[in-house]
Design brief:
about 400 residues, about 70% helix
């Protein structure tokens, strides 16, 4: 068995607008508008219009910089990030305080995983304009990405102070609060984000917000509200694998394993080679009192992925339910080996889960010392493990 992580999407809303990047002149009024992304300009029209202005040779110095920056944005939207970066660099050499250029360059650094460089640009943009709300929003997103949740919350709070009706800031701050286990605050922010959704929001956007709020409810063990929210997310975005995985996990944790089964069946219908889902159905069937079908599912998962730690652990759980403790321990040994567990070294959350389960089984098998050691190590690494797995039982 392994815990299904509720991997709900986190909104990353990088700048879509070109802030303060309007060239003074261009060949025609229409080209001026298109180069600035106005009048419904497509990325190709935007690129071409800026390109014409650059190639005329009429513009020099700071006047020329925004043309490069806008052309870079068009290249970014066309999927050519290297060409976009080259234009941002040219534009910022000519117009070093152009907020659009700084912000857009930080986006590419973010996409590349060069978070230190992205932060330098965002810090610079905010220093140029301390009221630059979008800079705080993007920097908060960056802090969230690098798991600096406290500073992410600080930046999102600035955004909310400056733009109290900007829903994405509430949603992102909710995710940061959840990561810090401040679940009531997360729920309050998520509820505010839902209330601020514009009437023309897509169902996919609505699903994201309900999915985000489901997570802190689940972490609080309030599965009634969590399931209600994830049901809304599934209804709004039925094609999403994420929400089906989350819903079946919530049903199973809440002791409603029979309700989890249809979601797992649907996931396997969509992708019969999804080994983790076979392994998950294995544990659900075991909890439903169907050990033979459960073992068949775990065995099939290992046929698809012979090194899937989750399948070994879940098969160990089935053996434990059958009171075949030696077999169960052997399965957990393999799962821990596949996860790279080395006694005495740092323990990740998934390793902590397997250790806790193996510890309980060792105690049942009469190995008091080994069982206590596994459980203590698991608790030290992740105190929530005991509370979570008490709901499963072995």
């Amino acid at each position: 068995m392994t815990r299904i992580i509720l991997a709900i999407a986190f909104i990353v809303a990088w700048a879509g607008a070109l802030i303060g990047a309007a060239p003074a002149l261009a060949q025609t009024k229409q080209q001026i508008a298109w180069c600035n992304g106005k009048d419904g300009a497509t990325p190709k029209q935007m690129f071409a219009s800026c390109d014409v202005a650059i190639k005329t040779g009429k513009y020099k110095g700071a006047q020329l910089g925004p043309f490069y920056i806008n052309r870079g944005r068009a290249s970014y939207d066309l999927g050519n990030k290297d060409r976009a970066m080259a234009d941002y660099e040219r534009g910022l050499k000519l117009s070093p305080k152009d907020l659009a250029g700084i912000l857009n360059r930080s986006n590419i650094y973010f996409d590349r995983g060069e978070f230190d460089k992205a932060k330098v640009d965002l810090d610079r943009a905010i220093s140029i304009n301390p009221k630059f709300t979008l800079g705080y929003y993007n920097r908060g997103t960056l802090f969230y990405k690098i798991k600096d949740f406290t500073r992410a919350i600080d930046d999102f709070t600035v955004v909310i102070k400056n733009a109290p009706k900007f829903g994405p800031a509430y949603n992102n701050r909710a995710s940061a609060y959840t990561s810090l286990k401040q679940y009531d605050r997360a729920i309050a922010d998520s509820t505010m984000a839902i209330s601020l959704l514009p009437s023309n929001a897509t169902d996919v956007d609505r699903a994201i917000l309900y999915g985000t709020r489901a997570v802190p409810y689940a972490k609080k063990l309030d599965y009634a509200h969590a399931i209600a929210d994830i049901n809304d997310a599934v209804r709004l975005n039925p094609s999403s694998r994420t929400y089906l995985v989350a819903r079946q996990a919530m049903y199973d944790i809440n002791g409603q394993s029979a309700l989890a089964l249809p979601d797992l069946d649907e996931l396997l219908k969509r992708d019969p080679k999804d080994a983790p889902v076979w392994a998950t159905r294995c544990i659900v069937r075991a909890r439903m009192g169907e050990p033979e079908p459960a073992l068949a599912d775990c065995n099939h998962a290992l046929e698809l992925d012979p090194r899937l730690a989750q399948a070994f652990a879940n098969r160990g759980y089935v053996y434990a339910k059958l009171k075949q403790y030696e077999k169960a321990i052997a399965e957990y040994d393999i799962a821990l080996e596949e996860k790279g567990y080395v006694e005495g070294k740092a323990v990740s959350d998934d390793i902590a889960e397997y250790l806790y389960q193996r510890g309980v089984i060792r105690l049942r098998n009469g190995d008091a010392l080994g069982g206590a050691r596994d459980i203590a190590t698991a608790k030290a690494a992740n105190p929530d493990t005991v509370e979570f797995y008490a709901r499963y039982g072995i």
